[in-house]
Write a structure and sequence with these properties.
heterodimer; A: 457 residues; mainly beta; 5-stranded antiparallel sheet; 3 helices; 37% strand; globular; B: 181 residues; mainly alpha; 9 helices
């Protein structure tokens, strides 16, 4: 049974477990569970004299819900979008140039013949950011050794620009850094609140930068102008939960992003997906609330999306006991295909990602017995998915579509970056000792566009 | 799970799903401590945790029919408690109420004569507050309740590798904040 898989703990984890149990025992006063139960369903031992019967509770909750919905509707009718305020803090007008004479050293070890030579990959390890050749050789630390260990993380590529998150040198506030050349001098391009890194992405053409923090979406131009995008009427905030859809269209003209109806999207299905143009206008709604779509990714030609979705029961998205499904649709949300099974067995899918040629999507599938797997699905979702791997977390396709970069779980602080052949025949370990949560890498080709070589539009 | 105990748990769950309030009360008695533990570690506030647990039990009562696998009951309840705690925390932040500090938390340890937190506990509490609520929830489910990444994944709608990634990131921050490695 998968749920019973033993996951050993090291000394720190064992101590943490003991302290957490002690802490909660010390802190929590005991509450009679029978009183708790009575508060929910009526007192079980006095069922003929229930002070709060369940039917009445449901009725009252429903009534409150209807009243709240009415108030929200009244408040939003006729509301016009507020003008977009300018942010006080602006990033540098132009990202500083750094010394181009300090490129990455050429690889000293030839990769195995079966590995493509495909530029560079980036990863975080022990609070520092590294860039290495595609085969994992010649890693170069790009963060300052004096400040390493402070928690630099989440490296992302856009063309040859590398962004990552970490504390600023001045006041330790969480900051987004960018490198347009690899020389160890990261420059801050935006700031987010402490402890809330938030998703951040350059458009594929590198002309715009999107930053999502605390439910606020900000688009930053190549010339440093920034605009805060107001959620559409009826939506409270942009989704900053880990179900956020946050993807640029391949031409950089628009961003796919989801918004929350209420409660910061803490309830299943409280989101809808929108297209936001690069200048900050909400141009299209791709889904409605309770027709949930999340983690949507746009195909390389911009015509299709692959996304996660769920079965809806009584208006509630069922993603707990009945895990998420994989969906495909046209960019306008039509022509949907749902994939929810492998070999006739109901299976859940997570984190779809398109191959560079748009012919396939990979996703995590499972649980399958005692592990999960990487499923490779054809672009229209109608063929039987192919399964490779053993509990790895897939991160990125190689540009030629023959391999998938994946993170392999190890029990300790670090894991391995591996390259899995999509035909299931080979697995190569590229890098060891990579931080667990910081391997959501992009694979950049050597010919990636340099957005700062030409003036911003 | 012991077969006899498993059969009994199945029967209790089936009865609760069918609307048997006594059966549901047995489930409450068995899992209320776990729920409170998770809620407290997510929101760091005892009274808020009890409020979250009360709300979580109401949700569990309404949605228990959607639970198909009895072995997932504990993780499912913990996930609901964590979610309610996160929501209460967010609502409270929106009302601009000052977040409970370690000092104030220390003052709240009552009643007199009850065991008081050690310096280690307070350091741990402060370190937990440095994590996002989602991470605190996963840490609580893994280390306070001993759930596996598969159980947490199934209850929270995430993938198991995703849960492990998130756990590791949170763990790395805790190690750093608590001065380990």
């Amino acid at each position: 049974m998968a749920d019973r898989t033993i996951e050993p703990m090291d000394e720190f984890e064992t101590g943490l477990s003991r302290q957490l149990r002690e802490l909660s025992v010390v802190a929590l006063r005991s509450v009679d569970p029978h009183e708790v139960a009575a508060g929910v369903v009526g007192h079980p031992s006095r069922s003929t004299h229930r002070s709060w019967p369940s039917g009445r509770l449901v009725f009252v909750l429903l009534t409150i819900g209807v009243l709240v919905a009415l108030l929200v509707a009244i408040a939003t009718v006729g509301r016009t979008p507020r003008p977009l305020p300018q942010l006080v803090e602006r990033p540098p007008a132009v990202l500083p140039r750094v010394n181009p004479s300090l490129p990455l050293p050429p690889p000293t070890e030839r990769p195995p013949a079966s590995l493509p030579r495909l530029g560079h990959l980036a990863y975080a390890s022990a609070g520092a950011i590294y860039v290495a050749n595609a085969d994992g050789s010649d890693p170069v630390r790009v963060t300052n050794p004096r400040t390493d260990g402070r928690g630099y993380r989440a490296p992302r590529w856009a063309g040859s620009v590398l962004t990552f998150i970490g504390p600023s040198a001045e006041d330790l506030r969480t900051t987004v850094f960018a490198l347009d050349r690899i020389d160890g001098t990261p420059r801050p391009v935006g700031r987010v609140w402490p402890g809330q890194g938030g998703p951040q992405k350059y458009s594929p053409d590198g002309h715009r930068f999107a930053l999502l923090t605390h439910g606020s979406l900000t688009l930053v131009d190549g010339d440093g102008g920034s605009v805060r995008v107001t959620p559409p009427p009826g939506f409270q905030s942009w989704d900053h939960s880990d179900r956020q859809t946050f993807a640029w269209l391949p031409d950089g003209s628009a961003l796919l992003v989801s918004a929350c109806t209420i409660n910061d999207c803490t309830r299943d299905g409280d989101t809808a997906v929108f297209l936001v143009s690069g200048d900050g206008n909400v141009t299209r709604q791709l889904s409605t609330p309770y027709e949930p779509i999340w983690a949507a990714q746009v195909s390389p030609d911009g015509s299709r999306i692959a996304f996660m979705t769920c079965a809806v029961l009584d208006g509630i998205c069922q993603v707990g006991d009945d895990g998420p499904r994989l969906g495909f649709a046209d960019i306008d949300g039509s022509d949907r295909v749902i994939v929810d099974a492998l070999a006739g067995q109901r299976t859940s899918f997570w984190g779809p990602r398109w191959s560079a040629d748009g012919t396939h999507v990979f996703a995590i599938a499972g649980p399958l017995g005692e592990h999960s797997a990487i499923a490779i699905i054809d672009a229209d979702g109608r063929q039987v998915p192919k399964v490779i791997g053993h509990d790895e977390q897939p991160l990125a396709w190689t540009p030629d579509g023959t391999g998938i970069l994946a993170f392999a779980y190890e029990h300790d602080r670090f894991g391995r970056l591996e390259l899995l052949a999509t035909d299931g025949t080979e697995v190569h370990t590229l890098v060891k000792e990579v931080d667990y949560g910081e391997a959501d890498l992009e694979w950049v080709t050597g010919s990636g566009a340099d957005p700062f070589d030409e003036p911003a539009p | 799970m012991n077969t006899a105990l498993g059969t009994e748990a199945n029967a209790t769950l089936s009865a609760a799903i069918a609307g048997d309030e006594l059966a549901f009360a047995r489930i409450v008695a068995a899992h209320d401590d776990d729920m409170a533990r998770v809620a407290f570690l997510v929101c760091g506030d005892v009274s808020l945790a009890h409020e979250a647990v009360q709300s979580a039990w109401s949700i569990a009562w309404r949605r228990i029919g959607s639970l198909r696998d009895p072995e997932r009951l504990r993780a499912w309840l913990a996930a609901i408690a964590a979610n309610e705690a996160r929501q209460l925390l967010r609502r409270r932040r929106r009302r601009s109420v000052v977040e409970v500090t370690v000092d104030r938390l220390d003052d709240r340890w009552e009643p007199a004569g009850a065991p008081r937190p050690t310096e280690q506990h307070l350091d741990l509490m402060a370190a937990l507050r440095g994590l996002p609520p989602d991470d605190r929830a996963i840490i609580a489910m893994r280390y306070a309740l001993g759930l596996t990444s598969f159980e947490i994944a199934a209850a929270t709608g995430r993938s198991a590798p995703g849960v492990r990634s998130r756990l590791a990131r949170a763990l790395a921050r805790l190690r750093e904040d608590l001065g380990d490695g």
